[in-house]
Amino acid sequence: MKRFINAIAITTTLVIVQACSSLPKAEEKAMSVSTHQHEELSINESHHGEHSTSSTVHGEKKALTQAKLKVSSNITPNKNISLLIDVQDLEGKAIAKFDNFQEKLMHLIIVSDDLQFFSHLHPTYKDNGQFQVEASFPKAGGYTFFSDYKPAGQSEQISVLKTQVPGITIAAPEIDIKRSKTFNDTQVNLALSEPTVKAGQEVTLMFKLQDATNNQPLTDLQPYLGEKGHLVILRQSSSLTAADYIHAHALNNTPTGQVHFMTSFPQAGKYKLWGQFNRNGKIITADFWINVV
Ligand SMILES: [Cu+2]
Fold first, then answer.
1. CATH of 180-292, one of 3.40.190.10, 3.30.420.40, 2.40.50.100, 2.60.40.10
2. 42 C-alpha to center of ligand 1: Å?
3. How far apart are the CA of 108 and the centre of ligand 1, in A?
4. What is the pLDDT of residues 106-153, one digit of tens each?
């Protein structure tokens, strides 16, 4: 009789365990489809001359666009350079019309390949598929561009472009995993919903912003590009691709001075995060590293 009761108890436990583990998995799958469209894009890169690169973005079903980067002059560190980005269809025909998204026609993220440098720019649309922007590069080495745009009536596309700034490269400083940093007059604390961040697991990243002079939560945060904040995440990689790029959107209804983002990291590795917030017209870029196991 005792053995019989044990058997029932074990069966019941197994059922409960299965029920618990199947639920988050189903949710996770649904989330990864809706939030990680970018990661399903793959990139073909081909080099055209010293300072320009072309890349093709493939959606899961079919490739839609390609972008070409033209640099007007030799890149010298810390000098403003004019960059041209041509967006074309796969036959090389210019895409003429774009839809605004997050208040702009194109969002351009430029990072140094060691992820020390970050810049978020909004190129100006000229005509005939061509965007123009001024950028400067702080030091020699490789740079990767994530150009984010929406051809009229189509889904958001990310084209990855690369360029090299000639010169002697300086080794990047060690990765610093501090969770509290001060950016000018703003102190930013990053808290995570999980003690250990695991690949594929949903995690909430909570940015707590305080005035560095009085340690009070910020009350002067304004929307930035239509949201409470923007978060760009990149996985450290020897050759960055669209699969390493995550753009997370801020959650609504968070306490004063706090901006939260929910995301998941596709694979294990070291990730750099840049949270961007608008403090009365001044943009704060708060960067942190996260280790994902
Ligand atoms: Cu932008």
1. 2.60.40.10
2. 22
3. 6
4. 999 999 999 999 999 999 999 999 999 999 999 999 999 999 999 999
Name beta bridge partners: 125.
131
- What spacing in Å lies between the alpha carbon of 227 and ligand 1's midpoint? 11
Q: For the chain, what are the domain ranges?
A: 5-165, 180-292
**pLDDT at position 22:** 33
Topology of domain 5-165 in CATH is Immunoglobulin-like (2.60.40)
> Residue 102: CB partners within 8 Å, gap ≥ 6?
225, 226, 227, 230
CB of 38 within 8 A of CB of 27?
no
Q: Is the pLDDT of residue 40 over 90?
A: no
Residue 22 Cα to ligand 1 middle (Å): 37
| Assigned token pair, 35 | 């939030």
Query: What is the residue whose two structure tokens read 């070409």?
Result: 68
Determine the distance separating the centroid of ligand 1 and the alpha carbon of 122, expressed in angstroms: 6
Both tokens of 81, joined, read 């350079």
Neighbours of ion ligand 1 (CB under 5 A): 107
- Tell me the pLDDT tens digit for each residue of 263-279: 999 999 999 999 999 99
